[in-house]
Amino acid sequence: MSSATPALPPSLCTKGSLSSPHNISKTDLNSFVKISDPGGFKWRLVIAYDGTKFAGSSFRTVTVSLSWQYQESPPTVQSMLEKALTQITKLQRKELHLVGAGRTDAGVHAWGQVAHFVTPFNYTSLDSIHSALNGLLPQEIRVREIGAAVPEFHARFSCRSKVYRYQIYSDTFMDPFQRHFAYHTAYKLNACKMREAAQHFVGKHDFSAFANATREDGGSLLQLEVEGSGFMYRQVRNMVKSIVALLVQVGKEALDSDIVPMILETKDRRELAKYTLPAPPHGLCLVSVKYKEDHLQLPPDSPLTSFGRHHTITKCKLPFY
After folding, report:
1. pTM score of the predicted model
2. Helix, strand, or coil here: 271?
3. Which reaction does it catalyse (predicted)?
4. Which residues contact 144 (CB under 8 A, 6 or more apart)?
5. E runs forming strands in the chain
6. H helices within the chain, ranges in order?
7. Is the dihedral of CA 91, 288, 74, 53 positive or negative?
8. Which of 2, 23, 107, 247 fits as disulfide partner to 58, beta carbons 3.0 to 4.6 Å?
9. CA 86 to CA 12: how far, in whole Å?
């Protein structure tokens, strides 16, 4: 193990402050870097993003760009994140070994996407790195959490299940504030019928849950949530769009809820395609990724996980009378 402390990457600072909206002194950040380790250090990220910008047309479901994969044009979440990380760490893209929990289709959003990357150096604190990272990322992407990870942790292969939520806006016209995050149907959907049909998915075909299958917000918004485990977590994002489309047909009362067990019995998604096309991607959001508990433990001699920090006012400059 080397006894030298690596200097802060010069690209991170310009005349003593970060080249981002969050000004942090060079001396401050240098104090967060610890001695090098040939084995490297692994870091886990929890990321939220609005997938609209990274999708092109929200209604395209075939031959589209994926939000989590590397390509510069059209931009992806991964390419934006790697660009920020390379500027902060002064490491090359290939040295970071950035890996996501999985891909999300174009137009799909995330609240709990997970990724990991590695560095040849450690940090004693992560708050400033966290702030710098969000300062360099576009406003559609935010790192919610950054923490140290044990060597065994792998964003993709340590995954146990994924939770997705799909939003449907059922009213005569679309709420303009929901247009990028919910699928609009002008039909008045029968939530009871949809809930009845959704129960056929519970515990079936490696779905560990189809929880809150027709949760309503007291108005026009329906939320359907599904957790896929086992082999299903790899393809659950595609299945959710197909399931939602089927449940919408049931909600319209164009199909009877008894059609669901019949389709499940065939074990063939092509059978479902006979009744409906997949729902558009923009109503879908990756809520969380669940992992093996032992893979989420903090390694020894690691900094505390950063959840971001609030700004505070140290002195009030307003006069009092």
Report:
1. 0.78
2. helix
3. uridine(38/39/40) in tRNA = pseudouridine(38/39/40) in tRNA
4. 46, 47, 48, 112, 307, 308
5. 13-14, 17-18, 33-49, 99-100, 109-123, 141-149, 159-170, 183-185, 207-209, 215-216, 221-229, 284-291
6. 26-30, 77-89, 93-96, 127-136, 191-198, 236-251, 259-266, 269-273
7. negative
8. 107
9. 10
Maximum separation of any 2 CA atoms in the chain, in Å:
78
- Report residue 46 as tokens: 């929890």
**How many Å apart are CA 288 and CA 286, to the nearest integer?**
6
Classified as helix, coil or strand, 221 is strand
SS3 88: helix
Q: Residue 84 region, left (φ>0) first, then alpha (ψ -120 to 50), else beta? A: alpha
CA distance 152 to 141: 27
Q: Residue 293 corresponds to which tokens in the numbers above? A: 């508990």
Cα(221)–Cα(218) distance, rounded to whole angstroms? 8
Q: At what angle do helices 127-136 and 77-89 cross, to 10 degrees?
A: 130
Query: Is residue 183 helix, strand or coil?
Result: strand
Residue with tokens 């400033």: 128
Active site residue 294: no
- Catalytic residue from among 28, 37, 50, 105: 105
The pLDDT tens digits for 242-273 are 889 999 999 999 999 888 888 878 877 777 77
- Is the alpha carbon torsion for 49, 50, 56, 58 positive or negative? positive
